[in-house]
Amino acid sequence: MEHLNRRRFMKSAALAAAALAARRSIAAGDSTAWSSDWAAQSVIDTRRSPFTKLHGVPVRAVTLHDGFWQARRVVNMEKSLPTMHALLEEHGRMNNFRRLMGTSTAKQIGPYYSDSDVYKWAEAASWAEQSDTGLFRADIDAIVKLLEGVQEPNGYLNTYFQDDRKPQRMTDHAQIVGHELYNLGHLMQASVAQYRATGDRRMLDCCMKFVDGFLFPGFGREASKRPIVSGHPEIEMGLIELYRVTGEKRYLDLAGYILEGDSRIPLTPDDIVYLFSGAPFTGRTRLEGHAVRVMYACSGATDYYLETGDAKYLATLTTLWNDLVRAQMYVTGGVGARRRHEAFGDDFELPNLTAYGESCAAIGNMMWNWRMLHATADPRHADVMERALYNGINSGMSLSGTMYCYRNPLAFDPTASGPIRNPWYDTTCCPPNLQRTLAQLPGYFYSTDHDGLYVHMFHNSTLDWKLESGVPVKVEQTTDYPWEGHVRIVVTPREAAKFALRVRVPGWAKTVRMTMNGAEIPGMSAGKYIEQARLWKPGDVVEMELGMEPQMLVADRRVAEDQGKVAVQRGALVYCAESIDQAGNIAPRELRVNADAKFAIKRDKDLLGGVTVLEQTGERLSEKSSADALYTAMSGSSAGVAAVRLIPYYAWANREPAEMAVWLDTAADKS
Length: 671
Ligand SMILES: [Zn+2]
What we know:
By secondary structure, the protein is α+β, with helices and mostly antiparallel strands. It is about 35% helix and about 20% strand. The longest helix has 26 residues, at about 1-25. Bound molecules: zinc ion. Zinc ion binds near residues 358, 359, 429 and 430.
């Protein structure tokens, strides 16, 4: 009860602070280019982007009710964000700022990208503020004061390269390896999130001061200035969002220059692959190099296309996206096959046990596809987002909200590896990245366009927003997605209005039925937005029923690791086997599923926060792993039947250490 009262108090305090900040902002005399309608801005604000097909809705416009994601979001708010804030303090990330302000005697600690962890936390907390609370208002305010206290008069701000390391600042070498602009890019994204939550522009002012006061005078394409290389792409997205907020085209142009690369900074061919920058983005033909860098570069390049319409960018992005889905993405939506360099591999190189699949890379995949969805309105991008979100991203945070995967492999042997989930990493990029994704999630459910409304994702929820014609509209979803395939959508425009509602039918659906006020809509098929263009009246109902039979997926023959194996998927969820769920603790690699047998679908409310498990009778392989022999004669027979029990992949590694596999041996390969 005390907790609730505190929350309520904090909420009213936050609202008052926001209103004050907004008034201050106006009093300071915004230029007309500023889009000061901060409360209407979405995760990426494309309302003025000439080449977007879609416009997002703000996070605050969608309220998630009880269900799959709301449970995760509550944990994020109540556990993940507070514990991560405490860990950032404990590991000296805030003292790095205080040291420079003279209020701490602690030494600089952590890698050169440590500031970005603070910024990402501030971004996550800011997105969370849109939906709730004000719980983090005081912590964010304290971070803003640190920024203001550390920023130099010329705008420079980076706790690693201030003070004794100042001579190393923005040298060619530091630009390649030092993450200065990466840190700034994350500060920009935090600033934009904070502005969109509260109208408070103090962090934005810090960013503009850095770019206008430090970067522009000394760096750029002009011969009189020093060149820039984006050693870890991120600044591109940040600059374009800064442009979207301020209307100042110089920020967009700077992003374009960075995406082109500047040959005055000499890079080796290996650097150009690894960094996925430093050479013209439009010269790229495949995904290669450091996976997170690649996803952020592609996201920034798509943002650039949305603003400029440069066809070369869209052509390149399309080529790269085809490489992603044809040859480089895991069935979980994870990317980055190689541990070495945390990198993409060759096409079809998708190992399971050694898969890297960094949480940040899966998040980057979702961010890129969100932008591609804006560019094309092609539902395949929403399908990839859903695959990554429910599986390769969602696996990154424990059910408790306090333990995180850095890698998200598709097979695991605890005797061969250390713990896969940890509360803290010295490179703690993934935890706050997961936190911001959950915090901003409601912003991914809907879009508008000039003549209607898109429904991309499904959850018990209420949208309270307006059509682009100006007509206010509410949309109520009732569903038990992703556990069940029924979705009821009640559409309530304030008054009857003609517009198109486009509901996404996920590409995985083998069967789908849809009704409009009870009447069957003909011509259903999966992987499409089903459009109903009509005069909508308050209370009109669309219902969708997706077939939820478990499916056994086989991989392209060129994925050597997956041959003779299947991955099981039900709806949006990819499943896996953990040894602790099998009778006798049998390792998944010693199991064989029966491709001809159906899975029983069982809801278990007490398991792993409430999951649906899949069960069938398979076989136990007779050729067991053994300490005695690497090779043995094939017996040709199985060691008898074995019950096979599968759980959703996202929920793995939440109990005692166990062997895990997504791809399971099968007796009858039906491909
Ligand atoms: Zn990461």
